[in-house]
Specification:
alpha+beta; five-stranded mixed sheet; binds protoporphyrin IX containing FE; three-stranded antiparallel sheet; single chain; 15 helices; Cytochrome p450
Length: about 375
């Protein structure tokens, strides 16, 4: 019997994939060793999109080589270490909000806060000069373009060239930052090349700010279009943690019709196996649809409702299993501190334009990011 929760789709790159959207199935596959991010023949693998990141993360040996770096990143981003960053994050937020308050209204919140805050935080952690932000922002935007392969590849190449110079410098003159630590791991481990460190640092930079930036924009839109929910948060600061989880659950916006398969985490089968009545063959692509999984009625009563009071919220927005997002604690600290500070400092904060006029950027991997978010107070 063919399970209804798994269906055949054609990805935006025109390739065949299995789309999985049932919460339990998505969660199970995220920690299932029969699927992974790599593919034995990466050049022949089905692609999710036309982005440079739209295919497998190399072959299994390349992925295995990353294990020491992943360990280092997991310990560098431990919840305890991230908590010690809270005062510095608060300081950065105060700086951004001071600048915003001095600005003529309306202010573009995307430019004033959503981009600079996560970029500043990740730059400090990694040891990337913040002064270079306009360059790496342009290259990153190109790299995550899901439509234009040449543009995406060119952006990724520029990022790698930039990062290589930085890694080489930190190898000979280490600083107190994560790229220096990664460079030291590469020096000590003969299996790791400078290229491995460069690529991993590029992923960290991209993952560190693009997703958090999207969450800030999305969270502000959700709160500012539901004033009663924003008020509840103002009156009860304890609600900020559940509110952030609810924003994360609803992070991925509804895609244009028929484009559901564009939103999901890719996994490649490393063996033939049967799942939910479907035989998935070695090398085939499964797209794990987080957005739909986060709307499962069994776990989230009234799933389409945005509710800052929602208690239990086991969303899958940070993934699950061996590749669970190592930046989750950091993102939560940034989001909780920022939303509390913003609502407190600007009690009359509102959108300066109708929500329908906000322009989405569906071509980006982080999907639905707004280009501008004009607000006033
Ligand atoms: C709201 C913000 C964020 C969201 C929604 C998010 C989401 C995710 C998801 C879903 C994954 C799993 C990918 C998979 O299983 O294929 C992931 C992995 C990852 N994230 Fe995040 N992330 C966020 C913030 C961050 C931050 C701040 C960092 C910090 C540098 C970060 C670094 C990473 C890295 C390095 C991985 C790869 C982990 C691995 O493959 O083992 N993320 N993220």
């Amino acid at each position: 019997m063919v399970g209804t929760a798994i269906r055949r789709v054609t990805t935006p790159a025109g390739d065949f994939a299995w789309l999985v959207t049932n919460y339990d199935d998505v969660k199970a596959l995220l920690s299932d060793p029969r699927v992974d991010l790599s593919h034995a023949a990466p050049e022949r693998a089905a692609r999710v999109s036309r982005s440079a990141f739209g295919g497998p993360m190399g072959d299994p040996t390349e992925l295995a080589a990353q294990v020491p770096m992943r360990r280092l990143v997991a310990s560098a981003f431990s919840a305890r270490r991230m908590a010690s960053l809270r005062p510095r994050v608060r300081e950065m937020i105060t700086g951004s909000l001071d600048a915003m308050a001095d600005h003529a209204q309306p202010v573009d919140l995307h430019e004033a806060v959503s981009f600079p805050l996560p970029a500043l935080v990740i730059c400090e952690l990694l040891g990337v000069p913040y002064a270079d932000r306009e360059d790496f922002r342009r290259w990153s935007d190109d790299a995550v373009n899901t439509i234009d392969t040449a543009r995406s590849q060119a952006g990724l190449t520029r990022l790698r060239v930039y990062m290589r110079t930085l890694v080489e410098r930190k190898k000979s003159h280490p600083d107190d930052d994560l790229i220096s630590d990664l460079a030291a791991v590469a020096t000590a481990d003969p299996e790791l090349t400078v290229d491995d460190i460069v690529m991993f640092s590029v992923v960290l930079l991209l993952a560190g700010y693009e997703t958090t930036m999207a969450a800030i924009d999305r969270g502000m839109i959700l709160l500012l279009t539901r004033p009663e929910q924003a008020d509840a948060l103002r009156h009860d600061p304890e609600l900020v943690a559940p509110a952030v989880e609810e924003i994360l659950r609803k992070l991925l916006p509804t895609p244009a019709s028929g484009a559901e398969q564009t939103i999901g985490l890719p996994r490649y089968a490393n063996t033939d196996f049967t799942f939910d009545g479907v035989t998935i063959h070695t090398g085939e692509l499964a797209m794990l649809g987080l957005r739909v999984a986060n709307l499962d009625e069994k776990l989230f009563p009234e799933p389409t409702r945005f509710d800052v009071h929602r208690g239990c919220n086991p969303h899958l927005t940070f993934g699950h299993g061996p590749h669970f997002c190592p930046g989750a604690s950091l993102a939560r600290i940034e989001l909780r501190t920022l939303f509390s500070a913003l609502l407190d400092r600007f009690p009359t904060l509102r959108l300066a334009v109708p929500v329908e006029s906000l322009r989405g950027r569906d071509e980006l991997l982080t999907g639905g990011l707004v280009a501008e978010l004009p607000v006033m107070w």
